[in-house]
Each structure stands twice: as structure tokens, then as C-alpha cells.
Amino acid sequence: MAKMKGAIEVNTERCKGCSLCILACPQKVIALANKVNLHGYPYVEAVREEACIGCASCGIVCPDGCITVYRKKVEE
Amino acid sequence: MEKEVVLMKGNEAIAHAAIRCGCDGYFGYPITPQSEVIETLAELKPWETTGMQVVQAESELASIYMVYGAAGAGKRAMTSSSSPGIALMQEGITYMAGAEVPGVFVNVQRGGPGLGTIQPSQGDYFQATRGGGNGDYKVIVLAPNSVQEMADFVDLAFELAFKYRNPAMILSDGVIGQMMEKVVLPPQKPRRTDEEVIRECPWASTGKPKGGRERVVITSLELKPEIMEQRNNALQAKYRQIEENEVRYEQQLMDDAEYAIVAFGSAARLSEKAIEIARQEGIKVGLFRPITLFPFPTRQIAALAESKKGILVVEINAGQMVQDVRLAVNGRIPVEQFGRLGGIVPEPEEIVEALRNSILTKA
Amino acid sequence: MDRNQIVQPENIVCKKPTLMNDNNMHYCPGCSHGVVHKLIAEVIEEMGMEDKAVGVSPVGCAVFAYNYIDIDWQEAAHGRAPALATGIKRCWPDRLVFTYQGDGDLACIGTCETIHALNRGENIVIIFVNNAIYGMTGGQMAPTTLIGQKTSTCPYGRDPQLHGYPLKMADIAAQLEGTCYVTRQSVESVASILKAKKALRKAFEASMAGKGSSLVEFVSTCNSGWKLTPAKANEWMKENMFPFYPKGDLKDTTSDK
Description:
The complex is a heterotrimer.
Chain A: E1 4-10, H1 20-24, E2 30-36, E3 42-46, H2 57-61, E4 67-73
Chain B: E1 4-9, H1 10-20, E2 25-28, H2 36-44, E3 53-56, H3 60-72, E4 77-81, H4 83-99, E5 104-109, H5 125-131, E6 140-142, H6 147-164, E7 168-173, H7 174-178, E8 180-185, H8 194-200, E9 217-218, H9 225-245, E10 249-252, E11 259-262, H10 265-280, E12 285-290, E13 292-294, H11 298-307, E14 310-314, H12 321-329, E15 335-338, H13 348-362
Parallel strand pairs in B: 2-3, 2-4, 4-5, 5-7, 6-7, 11-12, 11-14, 14-15
Antiparallel strand pairs in B: 1-8, 6-13, 10-12
Helix pairs in contact in B: 1-2, 1-6, 3-4, 10-13, 11-12
Chain C: H1 3-6, E1 12-14, H2 32-47, E2 53-57, E3 72-75, H3 81-91, E4 96-102, H4 103-109, H5 111-119, E5 125-130, H6 160-163, H7 169-175, E6 179-186, H8 190-208, E7 213-219, H9 223-226, H10 230-244, E8 248-252
Parallel strand pairs in C: 2-3, 2-4, 4-5, 5-7, 6-7
Antiparallel strand pairs in C: 6-8
Helix pairs in contact in C: 2-8, 3-5, 4-5
């Protein structure tokens, strides 16, 4: 089975820290950062991006469309 | 279709004129005394000839909002009703005024208040000109006094509505709606094509072209007070423009008149007869008939104070337009009002008697 | 493989739909509205109907839907969106016309317009975001509030003796001759979101094919009104809303005729 490697980009100014992406991620990639954006919302960031498989669960459940998900097949 | 002279009811004339002026959609609900409008349209089946849509809506509320939707998308859309139904439509009308949507609607007035009576009245003058809905707004109001004007004012209402992006109403009543007269129906104007609508109404929600203009939002909502004030000021400026450019009225036998009757709609027709009787008795009275109730012919009525001794306002209500006449005259000459209530239509002789007992004694 | 090899435009598998603009949405963190907006934007884009779509927004939290999806919109008075949509679609039959309404808008003040537009079989899609509460005005009882559920106007819980029963609009809609597709969906998990998107697409396509009216209900959360975290609100919805408003297609005649 081909292995996938993923990466995410979070639009931190759009994020409201609802944390639904954290719950959706099967790989525990995402966590709330210890910072807030200009709107006063804490936002999320990838803390274990090496574990990301690019399944896009985070991007799909995000109510604000903050997350761009990338996925690339690992060539053996 | 060329010009034809036919005999028909005022309500029927509205229907025929709507088809002929290229109306795109009529959305209405039955109510006496104007159900002939939708009945005539249903019989004529314009959706098979011009493509005009005719929908019997589930209520007057739904009707006015169907008009809002279609007119907000740039189409010529209209409805008709009578006083209690127009009361239901007030929210939709203020929304149209706020969102600058050119919907057209006809009120064939009946006696009120409330469910009232099915007999005619002119009791909705305040509702039409002061706005039964919320906020500072005006509706363009045309007051026909004949079946011919019922036919002519449909196209005029649409022209004015689209010229100013403002709702426009035809304020008729049960007398004119139900009476039969000869009418020259206007020739058929083709409905505008979709491309023409898009070109002429770039403000309308017709679908945002790819790579084209910004999206259109038809809305009356604005939460920022500074911007809302600007929007309101712009509306007020528009109303001043309408007042400057669109006043319409008619005068009869005013050149040598010492007294004036000011009346609109069917009251003006009755007053014509009353004036004939009065003149036979030697009373020199003439008729000033406002045709637009908004914009009101304030300047022209104010000018009457220079040459007339008194004004009798004849209107089939408890005294509504008389307020606007008094404002215009500003106390310089006596202004009295005569009307009947409860759906009773006065006789011309009653008007003459009122003239004798009020203005002639006071002036 | 380093990150730069992965983060390349050709490797994007998920992003904010292009039809959704850059305005930050005003909805509360975790609100279902955001996900439904995304689906609408994606489906319209995938159908290539950006220049033919006209949306009608409600009175409710989604009153500003017109600020977020880059198509033409009309703002309706409370409950009247199906009437506006009727006027628009009748006069512009080749446009994709849909309403977007909450439970107060659709099932309370607008019940008449909802039922009649659906019953007439207008070729429109009515999108119904049902979160059993009036969110915008501060969390009052809605016609779809569950028995026992607490809101600001039934603080001791909805009591049928005082407040009557919750209304199942989708069930009513499925009985009407004019509807071709009536479905209940949700957007709290990846699986449900993917199913919901298919349902929305089916409804939009049916309206363009002249099959009649569609009602797409999204059983949703209101974490602010329910006074729960977004995650707990999803749990509460699954435990309480799903049994009463079961998901799935209640009617589908889109393959007929």
C-alpha cells in the first residue's frame, strides 16, 4: 500500500479555535496554539506534522475553511 | 396587437395592460373587489403568448415577496390586492423601499378599518402616502380616476419604478375597479429579453457573471449606523428628485373659479358632476385633481391660495388628503373636507350641499 | 521527504472553496452554518453554475450568508425566502435558485411559504439548517426544539402542555406532491459531510432538470445557544437530535419521470 505524507496550512486569522479539527484528526497532528489571533481567538497549528497523512479530515470538518491540506505519495 | 377600443371593468383593464406593457410576472391572491385582475390573467393565459408568469400565491404576504424576488432580479413584477391585503403587504413594501426594488402593486380600496366592507372607499390614502411599513420611505403613488387611467398607469408605474428603483403603487378603489367604461388598450410591448434585463439593470440579482462585476446583494439590512445614515440620506435625496420631476395633476374649470374642489380617484369623478350642478346654481367652482399622491402637488395647491377663496377636499374617508392640502395652503384660505365612511359612495348632490354649507359660508 | 516537497499546489487535496470569499464568517466557533456554506460553495463551483446561482438568505444567524459566498443574493424578510425564490425562478427559469433558512425562518413564521412553494413544485432547493433553537436572537425556543430541551423561553424544558410539540418539517415536505427530493443530513463528521454534499448536489441538479422542489435539512448544532462546547454540542446532537430527526432520504423521485 502506498504511503501518503501530508502537510497542512492553517489560516490563523480565520481560525476560531473551535477544535473540531483536533477531534477529527486520526493522527493527533493538530493542537491549539498558546496564542490568539487579531480577533482574539486561539488558533490551531500542526504540532506533529510528521505524522500527517493528508487525509483532510481536518479541512473537511473545519466550519471556516481555514485549513489547506497537501498530500503526496511517498515514492519507495 | 394594435390599439383597440373595448368596454371593460377597471380591474380587467389592469390585467390586459399588464400583459401589453411586457410585464414578466403577476403574483396575487384573491380579495374582493379586485379578484377580476387575477381571474382575467388566468383566462388570457399570457404564459402561452408573451411568457408572462401568473401565480396565485398562498397569501398576500407571499404575493408581495414573490414580487420582491422577481423585481429584485430586474423583472417587471406586480401584484394587486385590496385594503386588508395591502395591510399585510406593508412589510414587503418597506423592504422593497429599503432594498430599492422596483415592484409594482395595485390597491383597489374598500372600506375599513380591519376586514371592513367590500364596498369602495379611499381610506388608504395615509397607508399609501405615509407608509404603512416601518422607517422613512416613500412609495410612488398614482391615482387613476377612470378605466382608461387604470390601463395607462400600469406601464407608467413600471417606468417610474425602474427609473427610480422604487416601489410604485396604483391607488384605485372599488368604484373604478368595478365600473365599466370604454378603454383604448395600449399596443403590445414585447417583454424584455434576459440580455436586456441584465444590461438595463446591472444592480439586479441576475447571476454574477464569471470574471465580471462584484456580486449583487439585494438587501435592506445595514448594521453600521454611519453607512445606514448614508443610505437613508440617499433615499431621501431620491424622494426629493421624484418630487421635483414626477408631479402629475389635472385641473378643470379653474380659470374663473372662486372655489376649488381637490379630489382624487373616484371622488374626482363624482366631483366633476358636482361641479356641473354647482355651476348651474351660479357657484364658480373648479376641480384640482392630484394624479400623483406621492409626489403630492404641494406647490400647485399652495398656489391656489393666491386666487381661490376656499377649498373643499372631497375624499371617501374621514379626512386624510385634506391634511396634505392644509399643509400646502398653510392657513391662508379655509380648507374643509367632505366624505362618507363605511363603504358608502357619496352622491354629487351631497358634495354640492357640502360645498354650500362649508366653504361658501366660511370663505 | 521534506515539507517543501509536500506543500506544492499540485498536492492540494482540500482547501477553502474559491467561491467562498476571504471575508471572515461571523458565526460562532464550531457552528454548523460554516460547513454548510462550504458545501454550497463547492457544489455550485463543481457544477460550473457560479454565474447562474441566486441565493436567498433568511433572517437568523445566516442573514449575512450573502457576505461569504460569491454569487448574487437576495435578503428575504423572516420566513419569506421561498416566496422570493418562487418569483426569481419563475422569471429566470435557467438560474439555480435556492433558499437558505434556519428553523425559526422555515418552520415558524415561514411555514406557509415553505409548504406552498414545496407543494407547487417550484424548481428550487430549500436548504434548512435545523439546530432546534433561535440562535441570532439569543437562544429562544424554536418550533423544532425538543421536548425537555432548555432554552431562554422554556428555561425548565419544553413542555407539551405549555409549548406544544416539535415540528418535523421534512416529514411534512415528503408528503407533498410537488417535492421530488426530501432528505435529512448532518455535517459533524467527515462521512456525514461527504454524504451531505452528494445530497445537496442531487437537489441542485433536480431543480435544474425541472423535477420539482427539494428540501435538504441539515440537522445542526448551536453550541452557543445550547451552552456547550462545539465538541459537546456534536455529541448532544447525535444523542438527542438524530433519534428525533432521523437522517436519510425521506423522498426521492429524482430518477422518475
